[in-house]
Amino acid sequence: MKRFGLTAAAAGCAALALTSFTARAGFGEGHGRGAMGMAPLMSVLEPQQREQVHAIFMNDRSRLDLLHAQLREAREALITKLLSPAKTVDVTDEVAKLKRAQEQLIDERIKLALQARKIMSSEQLAKALALWSTWQALRAQERALFEEARNENNAGNPSAASAPAQSRSKR
Predict the structure, then answer these.
(1) Contact indicator for 113, 22 with CB cutoff of 8 Å
(2) Which residue in 18, 70, 79, 93 is deepest, having the highest Cβ count within 10 Å?
(3) Contact yes or no for 69/77 (Cβ under 8 A)
(4) Rg of the chain on CA atoms, in Å
């Protein structure tokens, strides 16, 4: 039973890493953080498996591009409406379109992630999970170090220290 739990946890991490990869790391849009999410997974794959993962995502590239375009259009429509000079605005339709676009993109990413993880062994998934966990711990340490530095630099000005920290903690 314990082994099943570890395999399920590894599968979950692999699916999350793969979904990040579809939007970033060269298979869509993003800000580069997805490449790091995919790094643990890609590092445990054999060269032939990497080619298979690449082919899975490239075969669905046009669908992903379409979904990204829909998401971008929905986001821009919402922003345009929010920034309009009118005193009151109804953004119900724009929010619904944005949610629908996000949901479709997530569904597509999960579908591709599940296809891609089928080529991995349970040992590879366990290794990827270990690498992912280590990387997450390092990211938490990095955030703590920067937060500590900000707090030290803002020690004389409590209002400057608290406002940005509050907005960062919601990420």
Answers:
(1) yes
(2) 18
(3) no
(4) 20
The 3-class secondary structure across the chain, one letter per residue, is CHHHHHHHHHHHHHHHHHHHHHHCCCCCCCCCHHHHHHHHHHHCCCHHHHHHHHHHHHHCHHHHHHHHHHHHHHHHHHHHHHCCCCCCCCCHHHHHHHHHHHHHHHHHHHHHHHHHHCCCCHHHHHHHHHHHHHHHHHHHHHHHHHHHHHHHHCCCCHHHHHHHHHHHCCC
Q: What is the pLDDT of residues 67-118, one digit of tens each?
A: 999 999 999 999 999 999 999 999 999 999 999 999 999 999 889 888 888 9
User: Is the entire prediction scored with pTM above 0.85?
Assistant: no
CA distance 130 to 79: 40
Residue 123, both tokens? 């040992």
What is the C-alpha to C-alpha distance for residues 11 and 13, in angstroms, rounded to an integer?
5
Backbone angles phi, psi at 87, to 5 degrees: -65, -40
